[in-house]
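Course assignment 3, question 2. Fill in each field.
Student: A.L.
Task: Predict the tertiary structure for the chain below.
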Amino acid sequence: MAEHPDHGFLTEPEVTPEIQAYYDSDVADHGYVMNLSRVWAHSPAAHDRLFELLADLARVGGLTFRQRGILVSAMASTAGDSYCSLAWGGRLAIEAGDAVAGSVLHHDDAGLEPADAALATWARTVTRDANATTADDLQPLRAAGFGDRQIFAITAFVALRRAFSLVNDALGVRPDRQLRDDASPTVRDAVSFGRPPADRPS
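Answer field:
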């Protein structure tokens, strides 16, 4: 298949039964094949194993959907990743409201509940400079009721989500147009960084 600018710098692989099943799962979940999936189609098994691990870490961490949204939105906006910021900022806005999503994406946690603010701050700290963390940085998480096993899982979750974003960003994948069109004005306005959304729907 030919290279496509929205799918990044790699040529999309020829569709095999495994890849078709991978694409079909996207259509079932989203109504279309995501641009990033056409890159990860080079190894659908790697994608699936990564997300199985992320799901396991979310269970160990006791993370709700809202909390996962806060972690990913904080990580992605700190890293300058527009794709995951639009995707998870949009989900967070639906789950917790525009005010929460906008606050996390803008790095303004003044109006957040203490547990939400602790998660957002830790995700940003890990993303900015993992070598600069101190034991004191964990205190807001502990004060919010997270134990050490949960903190490990939360940190690994953020790190693996960052790795996923790095692959997409490095290989030039643009956010699906649908993500921008479906996002609230608050989320769209907050995501003014990273690669621009695709010019046409996926």
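Instructor remarks: The mean pLDDT is 96. The longest helix spans residues 148-170.
Grade: pending
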